[in-house]
Design goal:
Elements (H helix, E strand, L loop, with lengths): L1 H9 L2 H7 L28 H26 L10 H4 L6 H21 L4 H22 L2 E2 L15 E2 L1 H21 L14 H19 L2 H6 L11 E4 L12 H6 L11 H9 L9 H4 E2 L62 E2 L27 E5 L1 H12 L4 H18 L10 H16 L3 H15 L5 H10 L24 H4 L26
Antiparallel strand pairs: 1-2, 3-6, 4-5
Helix pairs in contact: 3-5, 3-6, 3-17, 5-6, 6-7, 6-8, 7-8, 13-14, 13-16, 14-16
Length: 536
């Protein structure tokens, strides 16, 4: 009976390809006279483990990809584009949408048929499905869920479910996952996240529930969950490898930074300056783990002569659109990045740009050697994509407690400590000195103690965002939820349009689904966002 259901699912490829209109990429020509697709697995060959291997890897890349969008919007990483409406076009989300619906969610559905008696495997799929749906709502608002995977039943134009209902579905999946892990048994050959430790999957599922409740403003439900990620050994993350080809298993940011032609995407000047300037005049010691400087000085800064060819904005008298106190062009000190929204052409500066460092990309620790780097440097790309970390949970706890309260202060300091511990010695880098950690922490406490409630909000948010390096989805959520920090670097374009409260629907959904309508603008808010902050 089970094999019959699997056979029906596999042989409905053509209907699924047509009907997962959510994603609607082109379908290959299919010979409908064939009983078994010769190019696909038949039921006797199908394996839940094979499905889970692919789902786990796809999930990590997908979480990283969406996290990059959140990072760009919140200045954790550099965003190129002066007009917010045009930075991320509908077409730019086609692949992510397709990977979610036609890829992972459909694979999870099929995997479930093969893992009926394997609670552990089912639980893994449920946690990942929940994260996918939560993320889709966080970026787009209402998205298909109830009818999303029913092409075989003739639903070729699924309607969007209300964001609140999709959140409720995701929370129910997390509850189901917790029950499955509690039952135990049926772990896959490869659990790339927790190596067969179901108890840690339970803490991850509970942590995602807390994240959902925090977005929804349900602090009572948030506080009722006590078994969640609290230390680094429980961190929910994906470990990348060092293989450069067939397949390329390196961290995505390592691939883009350590190339034969030099650095890839620019680092964000505001973020680097925030860490370099530190708190109370003490630099953040994590800056040497996050970034590697290929040069000791930047033209036009640090006493180095300006060079119009590689860094035009470093010329004396070059127009600076920012108010006093906001970094422009470069933080100095060899940190070579770009300002938020700068969409100028690319000069020959590949071997001068600051690179991704040891954390989380598995690159080179900044040992002040100031040398050009290529593939193989550092840990060779053996970094991580974080999904939920203990440090993040501490900062979420601080938000719920109130950053100005004693409990909030305790949680903020716990978040900083957890983030420092996470970064120290990462991927073979040197351990962080206790002197550096204590000096920074003591300076933070001194400034925090004398700060106003609003200033504490900015300090909390910046520390939270520093811990979020590697996945900015929760920074995007927190920015819309709290309005902090208020002193981020504005877009270099004086009139960039409204900050996106949500993103355009992907083109392959909006144009190919008769029940879908594209948004008129990006000011519409997701269901949980009732705030009216002046976001930049």
């Amino acid at each position: 009976m089970k094999n019959n259901r699997i056979m029906k699912s596999i042989n409905k490829f053509f209907a699924m390809c047509l009907g997962t209109l959510l994603v609607l990429s082109s379908c290959e020509t299919a010979d409908l006279e064939l009983t078994v697709n010769p190019n696909a697995l038949d039921p006797s060959q199908a394996s839940a483990d094979f499905f889970l291997n692919g789902i786990q890897e796809d999930f990590a890349g997908w979480a990283h990809s969406f996290g990059s969008v959140g990072s760009n919007l919140t200045r954790i990483t550099y965003m190129s584009g002066r007009n917010y409406d045009n930075v991320y076009s509908p077409n730019s989300f086609d692949g992510r949408w397709q990977s979610a619906y036609q890829g992972m969610l459909e694979d999870i559905r099929l995997m479930n048929l093969l893992a009926e008696n394997r609670p552990y495997a089912l639980g893994m799929g449920e946690v990942m499905e929940a994260y996918i749906y939560l993320t889709l709502v966080d970026y787009f608002g209402d998205v298909p869920q109830v009818d999303a995977l029913n092409a075989a039943e003739g639903i070729l134009n699924p309607t969007a479910s209300a964001g609140a209902d999709v959140y409720a579905h995701a929370i129910s999946k997390l509850d189901a996952a917790i029950a499955h892990f509690t039952t135990g048994g049926g772990a896959p050959e490869n659990d790339f996240y927790y190596k067969g430790d179901g108890a840690k999957w339970i803490t991850a599922a509970n942590s995602l529930k807390k994240k959902a409740y925090l977005n929804m403003g349900n602090t009572s439900a948030y506080g009722a969950i006590s078994n969640y990620i609290k230390d680094g050994s429980q961190d929910f993350q994906f470990q990348w490898g060092t293989n450069a080809a067939q397949p390329d298993t390196r961290h995505p940011n390592y691939r883009s930074s350590y190339t034969p032609t030099g650095g890839g995407s620019y680092m964000a000047n505001w973020y680097m300056d925030t860490m370099k300037s530190g708190v109370g005049g003490i630099s953040d010691p994590r800056v040497f783990y996050y970034f590697y400087r290929q040069v000791e000085g930047v033209p036009g800064f640090d006493g180095y002569a300006a060079n119009e060819e590689v860094l035009e904005c470093g010329l004396e008298g070059y127009f600076n659109p920012y108010p006093a106190g906001i970094v422009f062009c470069s933080p100095g000190g060899g940190y070579w990045g770009r300002d938020h929204g700068n969409d100028n052409g690319i000069p020959p500066d590949g071997f001068q740009r600051t690179l991704h460092g040891s954390y989380p990309a598995g690159g080179k620790f900044d040992d002040r050697s100031y040398a050009s780097q290529k593939n193989g440097a550092g840990a060779g790309g053996a970094g991580v994509t974080p999904i939920m970390l203990s440090s993040w949970m501490h900062f979420m706890d601080a938000e719920v407690a109130g950053v100005g309260t004693a409990a909030g202060t305790t949680s903020v300091l716990a978040g900083i400590a957890a983030s420092m511990a996470k970064v120290s010695g990462f991927a073979g880098s040197p351990a962080m000195s206790s002197t550096a950690v204590d000096g920074y922490t003591n300076s933070f406490v001194s400034v925090w103690t004398n700060a106003s409630t609003s200033e504490k909000g900015n300090m909390w948010a910046k520390q939270y965002w520093i811990s979020l390096f590697g996945n900015g989805t929760d920074a995007y959520n927190a920015y819309r939820r709290t309005g902090f920090p208020t002193d981020v670097q504005p877009n270099i374009e004086p009139n960039p349009g409204s900050f996106p409260n949500s993103m355009w629907y992907p083109n392959n959904y909006a144009t190919r689904n008769s029940n879908a309508d594209q948004k008129g603008n990006l000011t519409g808010k997701v269901f949980w966002n009732s705030q009216s902050f002046n976001l930049k």
